[in-house]
């Protein structure tokens, strides 16, 4: 029984010694991407421990390690556009705590700076930026919107020792009514483009028909002209032939008799009232 009490006493003394040693341990190591906020008797000190090995005041000092590496915060926010359309988006921010102000942040904001500072700033920055654009411009000019939000957040968060490295905006979501209106507009534009295309096709077809009709008319005119010219040439040739033949007959009377003979079919003309056959002078036949 006495041995048991001694063992318990030894354990208690050992624990107390460990606590005393740990409490009085003066050495502190600050890791990469960290800073140490010095609390002396619970009060935040101006001195900040950088990365590496440090010595603190035993019992009086307590070191709070703070992460100063880049962190990510996502905030879903809604705002109104210039034409009073509600737009919703998610803004992702890459940021880090200013290493030279971690003691001020710990003292004035604490660890809940995302909810206390970043989210309200994102909401306000989005509203201030989207109010300068119409809903259609928010879609077509998103880089300009992003720039405004980025500038707003950098200025606002820097007041609280938070440095913005980069922001990104997801796709803008609009109300169901606006989406339906956009869809109807797109359908109307597509129908208008289709109508324009069909009209252009009709114009091309009409132009083709006009060209074909013009070509057909020109072809008919050409054929008629050619036929008229052929008739004219033929008439001139026939008239010239008659002229030449008449000239030849005038110069050669014997040809008249020869032609009469060639034209006679060998049948004598018939007369009534007498039995004698009249004599026909072939020379007088013309």
Automatic annotation (TrEMBL):
Keywords: Coiled coil, Membrane, Transmembrane, Transmembrane helix
Transmembrane segments: 12-32
Domain Band span(s) in chain numbering: 25-186
Any coiled-coil regions, as ranges: 178-234
Entry-linked CDD domains: SPFH_prohibitin (cd03401)
Alphabetical list of Pfam families matching this protein: Band_7
GO cellular component terms attached to this protein's record: membrane
InterPro entries according to UniProt: Band_7, Band_7/SPFH_dom_sf, Prohibitin
PANTHER family hit by this protein: PROHIBITIN, PROHIBITIN 1
Protein's recorded name: Band 7 domain-containing protein
Organism (species): marine sediment metagenome
